[in-house]
Amino acid sequence: MKVTRRTVIKGGAAVGAGLFVSQYVPDWLFSGSDPPTAAAGLASQSTEEFVHTTCWIGKQDCGIVARKIDGRVVKFEGLPAAPRNQGTLCPKGMGQIQAV
Prior knowledge:
The protein is an alpha+beta fold. The chain has a single domain (5-33, 43-95), classed as N-terminal domain of TfIIb, CATH 2.20.25.90. The protein is built from four helices and three strands. It has helices spanning 5-22, 28-31, 38-45, 91-95; strands at residues 48-54, 63-69, 72-78. Strands 1-2-3 form a three-stranded antiparallel beta sheet. It is elongated.
């Protein structure tokens, strides 16, 4: 077999690509086991809480429900029992999640 400059470059490129890809392949892929599911672990450990409060962005003081997961506010929704907004919430109110 004749070794040329082209075959050496091809071989070097193949080895380099293999080493590069091997850093990003998870270990469970070749072990034969199932991949770990992050959602299953989080569902058993996370705590969900709903806090009733008012929106501070407008002048109406609309009633809102803040959904907290593990102490972190993840969503604002309108409070259906609030007489002023009756479960609705304006885009400004929903956007306050970024301020929190």
